[in-house]
Description:
Blueprint: H1 4-18, E1 23-28, H2 41-45, E2 50-56, E3 59-64, E4 68-73, E5 79-83, E6 105-111, E7 116-120, E8 127-132, H3 156-163, H4 170-175, H5 185-195, H6 215-233, E9 273-278, E10 281-286
Antiparallel strand pairs: 1-6, 2-3, 3-4, 4-8, 5-7, 6-7, 9-10
Helix pairs in contact: 1-6, 3-6, 5-6
The structure holds a DNA duplex.
Amino acid sequence: MPELPEVETVRRGLEPAMAGAWLTNVDQRRPDLRFPFPERFAERLTGRRIDGLRRRAKYLIADLDGADLLVMHLGMSGSFRIEQPGKAGHGAPVLGNRPKNSAHDHVAFDLSTGARIVYNDPRRFGFMQLIPRSDFAAHPLFKNIGLEPLGGALDGAALARLFAGKTAPLKSALLDQSLIAGLGNIYVCESLHRAGLSPLRAAASLARKDGGPSKRAILLARIIREVLEEAVAAGGSSLRDHRRTDGALGYFQHSFRVYGREHQPCAQCGGVVRRITQSGRATFYCGGCQR
DNA sequence: CGCATCCCCTGCCTGC
DNA sequence: TGCAGGCAGGGGATGC
């Protein structure tokens, strides 16, 4: 489900509730999600203070006092909600975001502030890990993660360098988390459309023969940053179940130009939006104005 | 090695 | 109305 803008939206929602609070109780309700929970997961978290909440790629990372990081991934359908005591009855959320099926509430974190953070994930593609802070950079989850597109490192030169020599389709290369971190299917499709670039062209076609950035590379890098910034400002995209932690819907989905719009006219050129499959995933694009 | 395919799981939508 | 099939925002394992 969530790509960089959705995960960042969740981070911004959770951070004020979690930072500085102690974990007074952790309720782990099943042994695994996508992967087994760490041994003694709840026990190891209880009593710890959360110093802050970061994001790297599509991962949320809680800095714990002491030496550990709590790493959380939302998979396709994971979400968090914040419940406050006393304001809406026994444990009910302040604002409406209770999932339809609380059977998929898999973890609850009780905080010293009285708030409760609940993780819900119907498909259970998400996971949580505890890793030593000193292992962060070298950890298997993070050692091969590419550059952060909003961290100032994404420009035409970086794109050209990353994509030089790659025969993979541009769409696939943009989805590769070891090259650029945090892009997913929606924002890749939307960025390519805005840049007028075909998802089918070879990734290497963004690099000049001397390895430098083509004009297309410079344009695409700028557009990716713009699209992500717009989406973060909009609170992400709400298709099925993504919501902000306060229950509000993101609204970037109203800005989609191609994603989910098969057979509809392209607002740019009047062509028809097509849907194809690349690397097993749907690609939406306009054959008229994306070259 | 780089790239494509399959698969994990549940829910929702479509068409019969 | 029920049921089968297809599809979904991610990404790890496998095989060519």
